[in-house]
Amino acid sequence: MEINILGIESSCDDTSIAITQNRKILANVTANQEIHAEYGGVVPELASRAHQQNIIPSLDKALKEAQLELEDLDAIAFTSGPGLLGSLLVGTSFAKSLSLALDIPLIEVNHMRAHILAHMIETEDQINPEFPFLCLTVSGGHTQIIVVKSPYEMELLGETIDDAAGEAFDKAGKIMGLPYPAGPIIDQKAKLGNPQAFNFAKPRMKDYEFSFSGLKTSILYFLQKAVKENPEFIAENLNDLCASIQRTIIDILMDKLEKAAKDTGISRIAIAGGVSANSGLRQALKEREQNLAWQCYIPKFEFTTDNGAMIAINAYYKFLEKDFCDLSVVAKARKALSL
User: For residue 224, how many other CB atoms are within 10 A of its CB?
Assistant: First the structure.
């Protein structure tokens, strides 16, 4: 049975629409929003307006790439949260309208669960993990360790109590005068620097919890003192600073992930979310695959950022269970992993 699902992702600043047939992608179209760079971060009102402008052209392009008509769709899926409420409302309202007009099922998808199950998309060069597996989900807004028992059952072991890992990268970059988003820039410059050049504070958190606000403060105070002594300190040491900051963030992530793997006895380890594109994090995972006998699953780059395909693949599993919603469904900026 071929199930064609339209997936709509609009949780932040990317408008993405995908069409999947069972677990295969027919189209995955994403419209990025460049306007936020000049403000040093995503401006919610501008993001929601841009979604309104991008969503119909993205749908048209996706249908053409998939070589399908609206009447060929079996369900409409959308991100209902977590995310920016204004952005979510655009995708939610559009999905409801399509579902009503086409008289086909409506499926709500949790954004964080979507990142995880992006690993189940069927492509020629992506290996799908067997259940159960551990997933470290790292992005600009979230940092979580999750036991993935099945497409329907996930257990949150721990998450950040303040800043997310991606947020730590961007805030550190802002302190150093780098443009937004700073994460990819830090990653590139880190390749040219010495990761042991500088040491920054690592928080001591219980169990599987994360905290990155102390690291941000440690970087800020260190640089304030260094720049006071030498105004050119950042420019002269930028590569080493980026390498040291990246190494510290990755060490924090890996320490908790190693603990989770040891405590649960699960050796199938995956990463997901925007920060999973970071080359240092990917290398750290590969090293542990060799040293700790892990089976590691690293997503394709196109599935690390927010994308409609991850919404559609989640909806596919929900479709099989007839887990549909009605038009009373609402978007929620905060949403638990279980929902």
Answer: 10
